[in-house]
Design a protein that fits this description.
Blueprint lengths: L10 E5 L4 H12 L4 E6 L11 H7 L3 E6 L5 H10 L4
Parallel strand pairs: 1-2, 2-3
Helix pairs in contact: 1-2
Length: 87
């Protein structure tokens, strides 16, 4: 992110967002004003399996969505796109 306002009011989709760098990207985007963060992950199976990540995102003012998916599979990736809030 790095530039003020870059993600403010935007929806951010993070593949691999449940851990490591992806997790930090989710938190940073929420802190910098993203309206929603969509976390796509193969590893986790539910929102609760994210170790509190969804709650941390929401505490920073963004909505959090979780989609279990393999982004290499176009059919599964369509579920990620469908999870993106439109308003």
């Amino acid at each position: 992110m790095g530039r003020p306002g870059l993600v403010e009011g935007q929806v951010v989709v993070v593949t691999g967002g449940s851990s490591g760098i992806g997790r930090e990207v989710c938190l940073r985007a929420a802190s910098e004003g993203a309206k929603a963060v969509v976390i796509a992950s193969l590893r986790e199976t539910s929102r609760d399996g994210l170790g509190g990540l969804s709650d941390l995102i929401e505490q920073r003012g963004a909505a959090a969505r979780f989609v279990r998916t393999d982004v290499a599979d176009p059919t599964q990736f369509a579920a990620v796109v469908a999870a993106v809030p439109t308003s």
